[in-house]
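Dear colleague,

Thank you for sharing your sequence with our group. We've completed the structure prediction you requested, and as agreed, I am returning the results in plain text so they can be pasted directly into your records. Please verify that the sequence below matches your submission; if there's any discrepancy, let me know and we will rerun it promptly.
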Amino acid sequence: MLYIASNHGGYSMKNEIIERLPIECTDLGCYSTDKCDYPNIANILCERITDNDIGILICGSGIGITIAANRHKHIRCALCLCLFNG
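Please find the predicted structure tokens below.
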């Protein structure tokens, strides 16, 4: 299973990724641009992940949500950036 989640800072990017993915994924929130706490979003996704799952977490900077996810013993989360134009 592929899970995806974001805080309010990553809401629009999350929706764009979901639209472009060639496979089905489960959206775990958030569901609007209303403010929400990234640790809560990270916890929701990380608690669903098992050995055969993949998760994508998105937030404004990516730093906080990465730290929150890595607090879970079975999670290895890395910050990935795309720095090209076009």
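Summary note from our side: The two ends are 30 Å apart (CA to CA).

Kind regards,
the structure core
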